[in-house]
Amino acid sequence: MKKILVIDDEPDLRELVRVNLDQAGYGVETASSGREALQVLRRSPPDLVVLDLMLPDISGTELCRKIRSDPALADIPVIMLTAKAAEVDRVVGFELGADDYVTKPFSPREFVLRVAAILRRRFADADAEQALEHGAIRLDAARHRCTVDGAEAPLTAKEFDLLRELMSRPGRVVTREALLERVWGSDVTVTPRTIDTHLKRLREKLGSAGDSVETVRGVGYRFADG
Length: 226
Hints:
Elements: E1 3-7, H1 11-23, E2 27-31, H2 34-43, E3 48-51, H3 60-69, E4 78-82, H4 87-95, E5 100-103, H5 108-123, E6 132-134, E7 137-140, E8 145-148, E9 151-152, H6 157-167, E10 173-175, H7 176-184, H8 192-206, E11 213-216, E12 220-223
Parallel strand pairs: 1-2, 1-3, 3-4, 4-5
Antiparallel strand pairs: 6-7, 7-8, 8-9, 10-12, 11-12
Helix pairs in contact: 6-7, 6-8
């Protein structure tokens, strides 16, 4: 059973999400504040986090930063669930590492399908996938782990997926549009700026091996073959 942590300070909304996820067969834990959520995350990391942006103590954006900066939590998918519907808020959410962005009010059925899609992409056939290795970089899909010269690189779920897409096609250019489709899916509105931001952070985390991810100006990105 996949575990999901729902973080929202509205009791009715929190219960609505909990009930629908419970009916879909997920194990659900809830938190009404950022500090409570951090305690739960560190005690028992879930398989996915549902995060409201407007919390009473720590903002949702700050909590997302904390999750993405913690090596033990960084690869947990995050769905932002918020009343903030402006494009700039969505862009900020994705730049912080959100895997999806859902605005209130929302369809509970569609929301559960989005959760299922993210978890399916994360876990589907992971055990059957072989590790990818080029130069100093090793990507272990089964363990969702990336190492550079043997040292772990704490990638977010999206950074991991982007690197896997590029490493699985060494020497071939992958367009931004293709990366958006394969990593975010066609039902999520993101911009080329989102791709660029994620890949900039990915290069930084890869350290000396970051140059392996090459920019092909005006087209997309390529993983260096050799």
